[in-house]
Design goal:
The complex is a heterodimer. Chain A is mainly alpha-helical. Helix content of chain A is 74%, strand content 0%. Chain B has a six-stranded mixed sheet with strand order 6-7-8-3-9-10, with helices on both faces. In chain B, strands 13-12-11-14-20 form a five-stranded antiparallel sheet. The chains are: A mainly alpha, B alpha+beta.
């Protein structure tokens, strides 16, 4: 039997949990609160209730253009990161490549590399080699930083799968390629879906790379929000943020219903 | 259906040699068990036959065709894995249809008929829509069996398929395997470390030890006449006792210790130092002479039987008796063994 923790420890635990929840949720509540304010200025608690800032955002060509850029890049990144990351995870999982460990480390390294350093490097490299930045630059750099998530979620489901499935499929007449398509890829699907979800979210949310690699006409939503906040702060930034929060929650519910994200919560 | 010929199979993993030249012929429709302790090479041999492992030397022939270099999907075999290896994303029905799909056997209707027939054979006709993880271990097992027989393979390979089941289900599955084999008459190779399973299921038992065939033969024969010390201990966990075989009053006796003699069958002759194998169930105990005196050390109640650990001189001997033969610890008992059951074996 596990003995219950001593009383002071339990109290400390409860305080810790409540604090964590509060610090996670409080900023979101503030943002949503500010977004429905009637006031011209960002202030909390909000004065009155109005949806005018939402109307403002949805009729603003600047916000909509930025949203479209973010959406395009997000979708492109989702596809490329899922394909490349999934293939890499399958290859790493098999451990047949001579430098499996090294390759895994390379694919996971963007997690520890400070994004700002990568952003500066990417800007200098791209300018030197290809000239001015384009949507392609953002696509590639976002793919690089989202790859580790796809690799990790896919490796997680592969680690739980029966190692004899592929051999069994071979004995049932499936050649290497059909084995990959009919057995390995379906095994990976939950991991790929979760990875795709992370990839889209991170790309959609990414500000550092997008800030360094921006140019007129290539402004993503986070960069637009940042600019607005810096030069003419009003509750419209809160409205945009609230819309993003709502979309993320919706996406999470959909994916969770379909596949269950719970298993990826733990490392 | 086809016969299987393994010729002088050698296999090394790096410097470690697992199989030292194994040759084995399995006749068409025969049920052969590969029996041995873990690490003896029995699973490697099966995997070589399946094409999942390459050979270092030797040839594999199935139905007269040399398949040594062929990948598994090109050999017309089916294999049942210890973990069952059911595809978790497919229904039971689709799992069983998988080999037909991959081998492109029959039209969609023919496939449907064969899948249904295979599921009926293992009494799972009603569970086709379920996912594997919704089934019990025994049911998953039977799905794996249905999937193995559905394509009517030339050879059926079973890799310890019963070892993850509890005792009762195991017995049921053994009966089912025997009946399915009788009906379909598939050439079958069955890998197991369980001697009872090997003896009860197969037409022939092949006992492997350290990458070599130790002995092979019909179950009755290999059980009754183990030729080596290893065979004796592995089959029936016999007591192995070093003795001197001497001649007293015209007949051969095994001398366990000075003055302690065990009569041998009339065919035996004096030959000096040797080892005798005494099966636990062949030894009879009584409270009174005649017999060899020993002391009861421990009794283990097994339900249908008792297992006694006895002290005889400086050795301990294990004996299986009926459940109603009860002696308290420390008591002196007398052992008798029919002379024809005492086997003098090579060491």
């Amino acid at each position: 039997m596990v003995r219950a923790a001593p009383f002071p420890l339990r109290i400390a635990g409860i305080v810790f949990v409540v604090l964590t929840g509060l610090l996670l949720l409080a900023p979101l509540i503030v943002v949503v609160g500010v977004s429905v304010s009637e006031n011209q200025f960002i202030a909390f608690p909000p004065k009155g209730f109005s949806l005018r800032w939402y109307q403002e955002v949805l009729s603003s060509s600047t916000y909509l253009a930025a949203g479209l850029v973010s959406l395009q890049i997000g979708l492109l990144v989702t596809v490329s990161a899922t394909l490349i990351g999934g293939a890499a995870a399958i290859a790493i999982h098999r451990r047949q490549l001579p430098a499996s460990e090294l390759i895994a480390t390379v694919f996971l390294s963007p997690l520890v590399l400070p994004t700002i350093i990568y952003a500066i490097g990417m800007l200098m490299f791209w300018s030197a080699v290809f000239g001015s930045v384009s949507m392609m630059t953002l696509w590639i750099s976002h793919t690089v930083i989202t790859l580790p998530y796809v690799v990790r979620t896919t490796l997680a489901v592969l680690a739980e799968s029966d190692p004899f499935l592929e051999e069994a499929a071979r004995t049932m007449g499936a050649g290497r390629l059909r084995c990959l398509w009919f057995v390995v890829v379906p095994q990976c699907l939950p991991g790929l879906a979760a990875g795709a979800f992370f990839a889209f979210n991170i790309s959609f949310d990414e500000a550092v790379l997008s800030l360094f690699l921006r140019k007129p006409g290539l402004t993503t939503l986070p960069v637009q929000v940042y600019g607005q906040l810096e030069f003419s702060p009003d509750p419209s930034v809160a409205a945009v943020s609230s819309i993003m929060i709502a979309l993320t929650i919706l996406l999470m519910i959909v994916i969770d219903r379909m596949l269950g994200l719970g298993k990826f919560a733990s490392p | 259906m086809a016969d299987v010929q393994l010729e002088n199979i050698r296999k090394s993993f790096g410097r470690h040699q697992v199989l030292h030249g194994v040759s084995l012929h399995v006749a068409s429709g025969e049920f052969v068990s590969l029996l041995g302790a873990s690490g003896c090479g029995k699973t490697t041999l099966l995997r070589i036959l399946a094409g999942l492992e390459s050979v270092t030397a030797g040839t594999v022939t199935i139905g007269g065709k040399d398949v040594t270099g062929l990948p598994p999907e090109k050999r017309d075999i089916a294999m049942m894995f210890q973990s069952y290896a059911l595809l978790p994303h497919l229904s039971v029905y689709e799992n069983v249809r998988f080999p037909l799909r991959m081998r492109r056997i029959g039209s969609r209707e023919e496939q449907d008929a064969r899948v249904r027939a295979a599921l009926e054979t293992v009494q799972l006709g009603h569970l086709g829509d379920r996912r594997p993880r919704q089934l019990s271990g025994g049911q998953q097992q039977r799905v794996a069996l249905a999937r193995a027989i559905v394509s009517n393979p030339k050879v059926l390979l079973l890799d310890e398929p019963l070892s993850n089941l509890d005792a009762r289900l195991r017995e049921d599955m053994q009966v089912e395997l025997i009946e399915i084999h009788k009906r379909l008459n598939l050439t079958t190779l069955f890998v197991t470390h369980d001697q009872e399973e090997a003896l009860s299921l197969s037409d022939r038992v092949v006992l492997l030890n350290a990458g070599r065939i130790e002995q092979e033969g019909a179950p009755g024969e290999i059980y009754a006449r183990p030729r080596t010390g290893f065979a004796s201990t592995f089959l029936g966990s016999a007591n192995m006792i070093d003795v001197d075989v001497v001649e007293e009053a015209g007949s051969a006796m095994a001398r366990i210790a000075p003055g302690i003699l065990l009569p041998l069958s009339p065919g035996e002759r004096a030959r000096g130092a040797a080892t005798v194998a005494l099966r636990q169930e062949d030894i009879m105990l009584s409270a009174t002479p005649p017999g060899v005196a020993a002391t009861v050390r421990t009794r283990v109640f097994l339900g249908a039987r008792n297992r006694y650990v006895l002290t005889l001189g400086d050795r301990s001997i294990r004996v299986l008796t009926p459940h109603d033969t009860v002696f308290p610890d420390g008591e002196t008992v007398f052992l008798t063994i029919p002379p024809e059951r005492v086997r003098v074996v090579d060491t």
